[in-house]
Structure formats: C-alpha cells, structure tokens
Write a structure and sequence with these properties.
This protein is an alpha+beta fold and about 190 residues long. It has one domain. The chain has five helices and six strands, in the order αβββααββααβ. It has a six-stranded antiparallel β-sheet with strand order 1-2-3-5-4-6, with helices on one face. Strand 4 and strand 5 form a beta hairpin. Helix 2 packs antiparallel against helix 4.
C-alpha cells in the first residue's frame, strides 16, 4: 500500500512539474502578430539583444520620435520639459494597475523581474492613447505571460490614467511616460 501511495505521489508531483513547464511557455521568441478576440498585438523581437517590444497593432507612436509640432524638430533626448502639470496620483495608480493585472501565480513567477511600460499621451486631452511593453525574450518570465494580461494593462491605463498637459507638452506630437516596474508578490 505504501508503494502505491509513493508511486501515486511521485506521479502527481511529476504531473504538476509538467503542468508548470507547459504553463511557462515563452510566447514571444520571434517577431509575430497575435490575433485575439477583438484586438491584435504585435511582438517585435530584436535578435541581437533578444529584446521584445509588445504593443497593440493599432499603435502609431511606438516607433515614432517625439517632435515639436510647430517645427517638426525632434525633441532632444533627455530634455525634460514641463510637459504635464504636477500630480500626486498617476504614478502610484499606474503601478497598481500593472501589478493587479497579473494573477497571484503570475506575480509569483515574475516577482523581482523588471517590465518596462511606455505610455503615449495625447498633448491635447492628456489621455493615454497608446501603451507598449518591453522585456527580454530569453529567460525572462514576462515572456511567459499571455497577451490577455498585457491587453488588460493597456485598457486599464487608457481608461483610468490621465494627465493635464502643460504648455510645453501641448507643443509635442505626444507626451511620453515610461517606467521600469518590479511586480510585487501577492
């Protein structure tokens, strides 16, 4: 009887291990398009550094330089104009939206690793109009997270985060906010 119980326990543990491997599928190993229910995401993989850029296929700003509308001149890198009025809630709320999009199991899988989130903001309305994500495709637990989670983050940021564009921000084709976020465990 003990042998049967040990055999069953070993088989059960093996099945759980196999299920975990299946659950850890890397979805983002190559450049590809994901067609989901009502939305399409693009995954661009730069093979040299194995970086993934994941974004809604409808995005128009993901690879667009930030420029001044009046001149068409590119905004200098690391030039931080006062493009939005100060606020005390958007960063905390954005981080909470990102963290809560992951299930408890997913948070345990990705905890301690960094996801880079980019928000492209309308200079006229201050609303988030596009969102993209960056992570590595090799050995990065974010590569095991299904598109639906990134879609939830995108829609929640678009629906719940806004800014008040300052005069400098209104001069740009878009306002950019991006951050590295470590997901916290449940």
């Amino acid at each position: 009887m003990k042998t049967t119980t040990k055999t069953f326990a070993s088989l059960f543990i093996s099945l759980l291990f196999c299920a975990n491997i299946v659950a850890q599928t890397n979805y983002y190993t190559t450049t590809q398009t994901f067609n989901q229910s009502g939305y399409t995401y693009q995954c661009d993989v730069v093979q040299g550094n194995k970086m993934v850029t994941l974004y809604n296929k409808e995005n128009k700003l993901t690879y667009t330089n930030q420029v001044y509308k009046a001149t068409g001149k590119e905004r200098p890198l690391f030039n931080n104009p006062d493009d939005v009025l100060d606020d005390d809630w958007t960063r905390t709320k954005s981080e909470k939206i990102v963290n809560s999009a992951f299930s408890a199991d997913q948070r345990n899988t990705v905890k301690g690793d960094v996801l880079f989130i980019s928000m492209y903001i309308s200079p006229e309305t201050g609303k988030v109009i596009e969102v993209s994500f960056n992570f590595t495709c090799k050995g990065d637990p974010f590569a095991t997270i299904p598109i639906s989670v990134y879609r939830k983050i995108e829609t929640d940021l678009k629906n719940n985060i806004w800014f008040i564009p300052a005069e400098d921000g209104k001069k740009l084709n878009y306002i950019f906010r991006g951050w590295n976020q470590r997901i916290t465990a449940p």
